[in-house]
Amino acid sequence: MNRQTTALLAALCVMLLTGCAGMQGPPEDLLKRVPVIEIGKPEPADKNYILYIPGGKTIPVQMTVKGPLIVNPGEATTRIQLTQSLYLYKEWSSLDGRNWTHQAFQGRVAIGLAPQGGIVEVFVNRPD
């Protein structure tokens, strides 16, 4: 896996790991009441929608590196594919649109420097 791919997976992982375990799940009829928007399509004006990412679909992931140690901030975009479909609604995620959880992924991120340059490595897995 190249550096761009691993760095951008880190950004995706951080985005999908948000949540609050003490909250009640979304209503069972959520798919009937909230529009499902496939990734890459325009979002509704009210910004209330379920994001659908089909398994195997190539999706862009962008990462920005910036901060007080960085003279010139950098950006990179790569494309990844998920092994299975994923629905995202606010802080919730689901594989089937009916059973929702706060934890879409488990993962770890390693960031470092080596003689060849910066290294960002991301490992993403489903929770048990």
Question: How is this structure best described in words?
Answer:
With 128 residues, the protein is mainly beta. Helices cover 14% and strands 39% of the residues.
Tally of strands: 9
Helix- and strand-based class?
Answer: mainly beta
Radius of gyration: 16 Å
Q: Give the termini distance in whole angstroms.
A: 25 Å
Q: Unreliable runs, pLDDT <50, ≥5 residues?
A: 17-22
Quick one: biggest sheet? 5 strands, mixed
- Portion in beta strands: 35-45%
Number of helical segments with 4 or more residues: 2
Indicate the percent of residues in helices.
Answer: 10-25%
Overall pLDDT metric: 80
Shape estimate: elongated
Helix and strand pattern: HHEEEEEEEEE
The neighbouring-strand order within the major sheet is 1-2-5-6-7
